[in-house]
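sry for the spam today, last one i promise. struct tokens for design, 39 residues
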């Protein structure tokens, strides 16, 4: 049970890290927004 290990992949994933950090990306990246909603 290591929190840093789980945080690393999340930050590496642009579908959950980019949309959250950059709201503008949600508009340009429809696929990213869809994946975020599914999560």
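last one done:
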């Amino acid at each position: 049970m290591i929190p840093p290990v789980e945080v690393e992949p999340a930050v590496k994933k642009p579908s959950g890290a980019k949309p959250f950090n950059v709201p503008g990306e949600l508009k340009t990246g429809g696929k990213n927004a869809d994946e975020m909603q599914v999560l």
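The chain has a mean pLDDT of 53. ok im logging off now
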